[in-house]
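One such given next:

>
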Amino acid sequence: MFKQYLPPLPKHKPLWPLGAIAVFAIGYTGLTALAPVAQAQERPVSLSSSTQMLRTLTVTGQCTEKIPATLADVQLGVETQGKTAQQVQEEVARRSSAVVALLKSRGVEKLQTTGINLNPQYSYTNNKQTLIGYQASNTVSFRIIATQAGTLMDDAVRAGASRIDNISFVASDAAIADAQKVALRKATQDAQSQANAVLESIGLKAREIVSIQLNGANTPPPMPYRMTMKAAPMSADAASSPVEAGEQSVQASVTLQISY
């Protein structure tokens, strides 16, 4: 008896592998979980107090500190006239050398020549120009202790100087540096005091300094005493010229930006 042979049915692969189905399920779950997050980000975010606009007050403090002027800057010269240029120049050179030697012997500082001049002199008669001689001058400048300036200028005149052009008084570099520090500190305190006065008057309080600007601690140039006088020879027992040095000013300015 013959049995009918039937071939085995082929095994079909599933259309969706199990791994893909798992991944799809996970991905779908993730998408549904992310949806509320996206919606939450669309809500407006309120600004905290730290991100609000900073309120500041800008004030400038000033201070002028006065210190004694202990040094004198002097400018003096030798001037002479004569018939010939050579005669005048030789006389000026002789007297200038004597004055410079005196100044060096007194230990002056910053000694330098500031001018040398030789000029012809003319007379005018009936619109006619006539050479009548020459005038020459040498000028020097130097620095000396203020209390010694009067005596030294008198001695320079005895040595041959015939002009005292000007004299000005200054403080020492060390004294100016110390005064600048004091002026800056007081200017800063002045700025803080101004800020506190303004804020307290309207019921507010200073919080912190946001920025600091130093506007400088300057020393205004001293005012020279212009004398421009021609001195006659002085006797050895003549009284010394009185000299009062006075004070020098140091000015400082500081600008503060303060939050409140």
